[in-house]
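Predict the holo structure. Ligand: zinc ion.
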Amino acid sequence: MKNIRILAIESSCDETAAAVVENGREDLSNIISSQIDLHTLYGGVVPEIASRKHIEKINYVIREALEQAQCTLDDIDAVGVTYGPGLVGALLVGVAEAKAIAFAKDLPLIGVHHIEGHICANYVEHKNLEPPFVCLVVSGGHTHLVVVKDYGEYQILGKTRDDAAGEAFDKVARAIGLGYPGGPKIDRAAKNGNPHAYEFPRAKITDSVYDFSFSGMKSAVLNQLNLAKMKQEEICQADVAASFQQAVVDTLVTRAMAALKETGMNKLAIAGGVASNTALRAALKQECEKRGIDFYYPSPVLCTDNAVMIGSAAYFEFIRGIRHGWDLNAIPNLKLGERYE
Ligand code: KG4
Ligand code: ZN
């Protein structure tokens, strides 16, 4: 069978990314232009600045992705692009670029769901991983527990009722003075802290075993900080970071283990920016080993936003015959499993 090469573009948030991916599993290139330094000045992502940076960078990033893969547009079989969810102005840059390239070269155009992309990062990292499996998706905007029934087929078991896991990391980091982006900073600070110094609540959702809630945990941290301030006590940043991280990890691990038990599946994958958290990886690894479950996680560069994962997801859509028309648009609140063809 002919090798299928996909040029993939990702611009849903604050990374401008392009990649060439072969047969959904081989990353021939992976170029990411991060805007983190720029948004750090404002303590978080500023949507309009993100869009403006994407439009400035995108052609350079694509050219570099083609060069790194040692190919030209003539070697590309289809163009894949994130069309949601994400920031609308940011998404539109990638979608317009992908449409222009596909139109000019008369190539198939495939819109990809960003979260589907995160899940597919596992196919690139683990060449032997095949559905079905349970996947815990934990990113800055999403927290989902999903059964991947087949390529491109998802059943959502649970999701967050309020903040996403990454969002909670970012908010707590800001509150304890670590700054943006919070996840990696809490991860690092927590290594020197006591995870049992504070008991932050592990919220249980009464009508769902699989749904998540992180806002109570975040408020408990803020209350603790206020209390300390009122009593003019010093708080130990590392202890708060470690205790908060432990509360998030416990919540994620219990839900994931319940899903594995309930579905009887013996494979667990994790995806999204928070999936690079060292404490989460260690805890899941340990729990999976105890239960004889195979545990899959992408390397950190494939956990946070990148275009390789989009190229992988686009390939599996491509071989299912899914194509988008020239009217493809950005859909900021696109739901997982929803398709606009
Ligand atoms: O998947 P991603 O790059 O973007 C979205 O699709 O949202 O995830 C970004 C999120 C941020 O909230 C960031 O703080 C978090 O992932 N993150 C981490 C770590 N690295 C990134 N959270 C915890 N520990 C980390 N090591
Ligand atoms: Zn993402």
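The mean pLDDT is 95. Residues 237-263 form the longest helix (27 residues).
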